[in-house]
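Entry: GNAT family N-acetyltransferase
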Amino acid sequence: MVEQGVDEDIEYDAYDAVAVHVLALREDGVPLGTGRLLSGEAAASKTGGDLSVGSLGRLAVSRAARGHGVGAALVRAIEDAARARRLASVDLHAQTHALGFYERLGYTAYGPEFPDAGIPHRAMRRAL
């Protein structure tokens, strides 16, 4: 939130209580990154109402951990959680500068660019 200037008031929502949260830790317990998966009704507003689609969000990796596979590992952990919930695919809203990262992980962009928290985004999806 601090790095990107996102207001704390819009970062937290009622879905945090029902989301699957993933956390990557260094061996000494220092957090390296995090993300979350929404499913069911919590994801429906983000996935066009399709209950078979999960919503990956809030992916963040500390600056020092970037480029070391932490983000990819977090995405794969979220996909594993989606599979465990028998979801058919995972959607996400990627900041446009991160499209290549998600494309390398098998996600495909669809629809027009849109602003979220003042940052340009595109919707993306990957079938599981």
